[in-house]
Predict the structure.
Amino acid sequence: MTPRIAAGPRRAAVVGHPISHSLSPLLHTTAYRALGLTDWAYEAHDVRPGELSTFLAGCGDEWVGLSVTMPHKVDAALLAAARAPSVERTGVANTLLRSPRGWQAHNTDIEGIVGSLRGVARVAPTTVTVLGTGATARSACAAAVDLRSAVLTVVGRNPAAGAQCLSVITGTGVSGHLVDLGDAQGCARALTANVVIATVPPGAADSIIDRVPAVGAGMLLDVAYRPWPTPLASAWQQAGGQVVAGVDMLVHQACAQILLMTGRPVAVDSLLGVARGAAH
């Protein structure tokens, strides 16, 4: 359910820790202006781990919604009064929407990943590799299902977190595999997938960069966007592979959030140029 736009000022924000790097205020504010929502404001709030519930309790009636980033995506799902199917699938939320019955949790990261890849991919990827085992990695696993992948490989250091990621594809018919980041041969094979989705912070994948030259013509979506390009993205491009920048995913998921919060659509292309300019 999208909120009805009522008269009077409205507030929204992105919450996370750290948060100073976020481009969400720029994107949402640009969209509000384009939509004529002159009395809407979008802010950034640094909310430390474990303090999301306190922040939510302090949000008055003027608050419409929140964009949620690390480390709060799991807490956002748990604290919500209602959860969209995208949250039930993954156990994480990047969006909280105000409603008369309390906060509703949504996960537009899945739409962001799928939208950014479908914009450049000519065919459905048969194989997908996800680098990382955090909250965004779970969304990437769900996106692999939506992209009609047949084989999914998750690469990370935490077996328990990796198992949580693979649980997202349970019952979907997708074949799942877990590879330790320290397994050089396993990582080299994983990087030959049609699509590799890196969900780790910049520099976290440096240990496998020497495996990138074997990639060939594969596609990389690196969800990081500051600083850009990441070391992994640079190595991938040098090896001749195609790179989709994290800002593309950011814009696609932001447009889905804006629709949820305002009830009005905003064109992806209208925000892509703004985001790409700010990220470089």
Summary: The chain has a mean pLDDT of 93. Residues 246-262 form the longest helix (17 residues).
